[in-house]
Structures are given as C-alpha cells and as structure tokens.
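step: validate -> pass
step: tokenize input -> pass
step: predict -> running
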Amino acid sequence: MFSLVAVLSALWMPASPVFADQSSLEAVAAASGRPRECSAPSAKKGRSKKPSVWQRARVPELVPYCDLLAKAHVLLESDPKAALELADKAEAEWPGHAGARIAKGRALLALGKPKEALEAIEQAAAIDKLSVEEPKAMKAQARALVLNGRIKDGAELYRTMVPRSSLLSERQRAQLLLEAALASMADSARPAGDAASAPSTKNLAEAIAYIGEARSVEAGSLGGDILIAAALIHDRAGDKEKASVALAEATRVGAKLSDSTLYVADPADAKAFEALALERTNPAEAQRAWTAYLEATKTEAFAAAARARLQGLKGNGGKAPATKPGNKKPKKGAQP
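step: predict -> pass
step: emit ->
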C-alpha cells in the first residue's frame, strides 16, 4: 500500500527553474507549488527531476524538508493552521530556504494575517526571486499586497498574473480575475481630498475586462459575487444600463454573496456589495448598507455613484427599483 509521502511525491511533478516562456509556465502549472529546492535541473531545458541520490546524501535534511512541504501544500486550502505548522517544521528542518516561507505565507494569508503573510513571501523572494513566480505564490503575494494597503503594487502584480490565469483551476481562475478586477477598480480611485477625485477610466476599463472574463469562467460559489462585482464596476464606470443588467441577472438566479472580505480591495466595498445585493429584495436594508459604505469609504472617487443609488432608493419611496419596461411581467389575466 502506498504511503502518503509516496503519493504526494508522485503528484509533485518537476518544476521549471525559469518562467520566461509558455513552455516553462506550463511546467510551473504541472508543479502545483513544488519548491524549486525540492527539484534538480535535468539536462533538458525547462525540465527538472527529483533530487538525486548524491543530493540527498549531501543534504540529508532535503527529503524530510520536502516531505513536510508536500503535506503542507495539500492542506493549505482545507486546513491552513495545520499547513502553517508543517511549514514551520520544514523551516526548522532545513532553515533559510524559500519553499517553507512561501508555504508559510500562503497559510498565514488564509488565516487572515496578511501582514505576516507578506513578510514571509517577501523573505522567500529575497532568498530566491523565482520562488514567487509559481502561480499560487504570485496570487497570494498580490492579495497580501492589496490587503496591506499597497493597492498599486498589488494591481500591477495581478496585471502580470492574469495572462497566466489559465494555469489555475477554473475556481481559482475565477477568484483571481475577481480579485484583479476589484484591485484595478480600487487602484483607479484617489484618496479623499484629491482635487482630481474622478476615477481613472483606464483602470476602470481594465476592471471591466477582468470581470467580463470572470463571468465566462465556471466560478462555482463565486458566481453571485462576480455578478454583483460586475454591477458595481459598471455602475462606477457610469454605465447604469450594464449595471442594471448584471444586477437583474443576479436577482434572477438568486445569487448569494460569499464572504466579500475574501476578495474586495477596499474594505468599504464590502458594504457596497451588500447594498447592491439587497437593492431588489430589501431596499430598506440596502439604504442602510449604502449609508454605511459612505461613512466607511476613504475616497471620493465612487462616493457620487453611491449617493446616486442611495437617493434612487429613497426617491422610490424605499421600494425596489422599478423593472425596466422591456422586462415587465404581464399583469394577471393579461394576454402575453
């Protein structure tokens, strides 16, 4: 019967030492996060193999280190606390290597500790700058940057990552595109008090492109979040019609929001998501959510759009926005 370590070793395919071209990126995808130090370069360009007998003899800590990290990577999504413990054990087994810091950073991010996560990932990059080019590591770094308030840096890293998003699973790709869209939207805003308070149209256009691509992906439980995000981005870009279409679709499918703090770039936007999700089903609560957003936001860039939606709800007598003429349901007894 195969041991867990044997199975994990078989699953962890060779990783590429360089990521400049598409073939090496495909190798990264196959690696699924395998640390570079747990691979040995082969004679063939862009390929690697398991550590040789000579490597294992020269560095006896290598095998237990890589085994611990293999287990940590398996647990990162289901049990990040256990993954963190395994990453710490790997670090203690063979200190000073990037792979353990990457696993630690991803685990800390999943545990809601973005400051410590970014520190660990940046330590890994200082040890081996290529360690953070593995897709999941890069995604974690981008998210950690955003959560630490470094929106511009995070948006730039997402910009690098989006062309590689096909290397991720459909669910992971959908989340990456959602995060990227919201980071670009947040990057388009300017701090309160800036005379040029209008958002950047270039970054908003980028956000629209990302969220449009996200809508074409099988997003699973994130489908509702993506529809609400599309409504929010289009509304802030001034396209009320497309915002209304996305919101109507969300209502039609009974879309439910997941925890928006997992993907918003601006913490205040959690209230904007809540408000949009409630507008057609509970307008009174939607008004409260928009008011909470306006109290929480630190930028004027999108405040006017929020006030307009709030005023629209108030002007409608606290009722849900009227259905567009082309979408009205026939009255009971009327001919279709």
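step: describe -> Residues 200 and 293 are 20 Å apart (CA to CA).
step: cleanup -> pass
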